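Q: Here's a chain of 168 amino acids. Please give me its 3D structure as tokens.
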Amino acid sequence: MVGVDGLVRDAVRDDVAAICQFGEVHIRPHYTPLIGAQAADAQVRRWWNEVAIDAAVCAGLVVVAEDDGRLVGVGQRGRDGHDQVIYKLYVEPGLRGGGWGPRLVEALIRQMPSDADRVCVEHFAANVRAGAFYEREGFTRERVEPSASGDPALDVVWRARQLGTGRA
């Protein structure tokens, strides 16, 4: 399996530039066929810029996956009201299916407060592959928020996974 010996760890400030570069290289090509070039570009500008990434890293909300010292995946969490939420979870396309995604999810869950009883994720409706991944990881569909643009590809699907008590 690709990536068996790789490392998943909490991001540090020295990772900010590499995380931004990861977004520049991988997010636009990933999202353009799903949601269009304009919306994909907006995702990178809004969520993968140095200010946003630096703030999230400094708040202890980001994990990275490394293989031979090279950043190959990123995960970021946050909150939506009471819920813990995974807002970013990306693995380099050539390494998908190699176990990085589940490892990033588990690293983000380990960062969460011990009293967190569930974790949510959100993804664009057009991102069917993400939906299938989250289903495999135990996330069940809860709701769909229609896009303000009216484009169903941009609808946001919310899923949740219950967290067991006594987790590490």
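Q: Can you summarize the key feature?
A: The first helix runs from residue 16 to 35.
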